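dude i think i finally got it to work??
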Amino acid sequence: MNDIRRTILWVIFGFSMVLLWDQWQLFNGHKATFFPSPAPAVSSTAPASKPASAASVPTGQAGVNAVPAPVAGAAAASAPGALPASTPSATKERLVVNTDVLSLTFDTEGGTLVHSSFLKHKDMVDQSSGFVLLDESAARVYVAQSGLIAGAEGGSFPTHKTLMTAVPGERTLKDGQDTLEVKFESAEVGGVKLVKTYTLKRGVYDMTVRHDVVNTGTSAASPQLYLQLVRDGNKPPGESSFYSTFTGPALYTEAKKYQKVEFSDIEKNKVDVEKQASNGYVAMVQHYFASAWMLADGVQRDIFLRKVDTNLYAVGMITPLGAVAPGTTKTVEARFFVGPQIEKQLEAIAPGLELVKDYGWLTILAKPLYWLLDKLHGFLQNWGWSIVALVLLLKAAFYWLNAKAYASMAKMKAVNPKIMEMRERLKDKPQEMQQAMMKMYRDEKVNPMGGCFPILIQIPVFIALYWVLLSSVEMRNAPWILWIKDLSSPDPYFILPIVMTLTTMLQTALNPTPPDPMQAKLMWFMPLIFSVMFFFFPAGLVLYWITNNVLSIAQQWVINTRMGVPPQFNLPKFK
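look at this
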């Protein structure tokens, strides 16, 4: 029973340990490492035309595609790389289209979206530029493609490699204008012409993408529409080495809900996801931002994930269009989202899309915490003070649980001198010492575990808040006071981490000293070790921790005083 007292030490630092352990272990299928190895460079062939050709719809290879067996052969036969419509890159053009929140670049090869910049979310390095998500350059590949492939009947149709003509029109959303259309028309391929129309709206990051399939031939055609996202497997630039967030493909269906897939699983052909559905979306996710293709509910689609080339991967959907008679047009509308993970906006776009903002296994607690944080921000208009206010409310909600824990610790502190004397007196008689200690606990009405359970109950709530603060794009470039200009970046002068370290040490000094000398040393070493980690954590997370520490110290001080246990500092004694 002597070991029971160790629990008090571990509970004091339990929150720190759980957070760090949660980071080091699998984060919902994503392996997080303390010092992850550098991400592999993009293959030198990635930005060129070869991957784009390989990145066409699945071709029935390698077992990772979702194309039904009868269609796979036809799909392979109509792979865009074999199409005569694949035009030399010298004839391609790129169009820049601007709304009030987006700057997009389209390539006339396939009418593909090859670049996106967010005007209201600045780049962390170059504050004069918007954050870039989609990109096709020498360093990165991340594009949104769509096109047609053949069904079971075979044939060749316009793909994302087919040169298209941009229909003249406005390229900038003007004042007083709410929508902007960008249209691309392909040449006839296999008796079919594809007209692709992007409709962008003011103030939002999702758009309608209408695919008009026009049969200009003399016989019926049965193409299939594919929608896909192609991305390299690199981590986003600037990601911290001290915490890791998920980067990779994801999908959502009503049947299996939200599923994430590691690039490494695609590489190893170990993908296990729902491959057919009539609802949901496919997405590419990274810290703070995401992109997603969506079809209307009720539209049958096959879902695929596959390796396209070295360090290049695709996630997408294929939907059959049925027979298109000569001289007729069949239209399929899709929606495309590319933007920040703002929870309220994601919820309004499509069911389950808000899950790309991943809170992990504590989503059920994190979502109401974010809701409350957002409400506080609506009142305070400052995310830093909103964090302080939220922690204050949580501490108030758990006041009585904390009071019980601190009262138990105060009792332990009061009897600690007697325990230390007993341990010294009976150190050569361990069995007698155990019995004497149990008797003392009964006589003094002290429960060594009394300070543990109330705190353990709260740990999941505070871990959930941790993930809320780490995942919320609203913290990006959000100032607090004075030198803190960005709550999502580390404190540039390390003032907050130093304050956090001091408050953690003060809290440690107020707690009972463990009788075991080794435990006593650990009680001081552990806060120092964990505090070093927080020197590189976002300022918003450190602010939250400081607030929690200060309120805990204040409550502990008050309770100790009420119980007649004068506050005293148990300073370390290292020999």
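Confidence is low (pLDDT under 50) at residues 1-56, 58-90.
im so relieved honestly
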